[in-house]
Amino acid sequence: MHQHPIANPQSLFPWEFEKDGQEIKVRVDGQAVFNDISMRMSSVLDGVGLAYMPVDQVQSYVDEGRLIRVLEDWSPTFTGYHLYYPNRRHHSLAFSAFVDALRYRGPAATASHGA
Asked: CA 41 to CA 8: how far, in whole Å?
């Protein structure tokens, strides 16, 4: 990996890989730093280098053959968000909306899970 150009070094966080229970964290350096996922995507599509991206952000490009996954067997699975908060009866409307948004799985996910 250190031999390839890196399009999103995320210098604050190491890239995390996992396979068969073995976890590896790799700090990478690159030519560009992005704090916007759309700019990172554009740079990768333009051939700047490798990027550590969420699968749902790149899957359509992989399906089209515009991108390829590397180290796929080392890619950890995202299990979802976890939220811990005090069990109180009266939450603010904003907090309740936030919790509802995190719980929402969308029409396709709801239909496929029979809920």
From this structure: 9
pTM, rounded to two decimals? 0.58
What is the C-alpha separation between 46 and 87, in angstroms, rounded? 48
Angle at 85 between CA 79 and CA 88, to 5 degrees: 140
Query: Dihedral through CA 54, CA 15, CA 33, CA 83, nearest 10?
Result: 60
Positive or negative, the CA dihedral 55, 58, 63, 67 is negative
pLDDT digits (tens, 9 = 90+) for 64-92: 999 999 888 888 776 777 777 777 778 88
CA 115 to each of CA 91, 97, 112: distance values in angstroms, whole numbers, following the listed order = 25, 20, 8
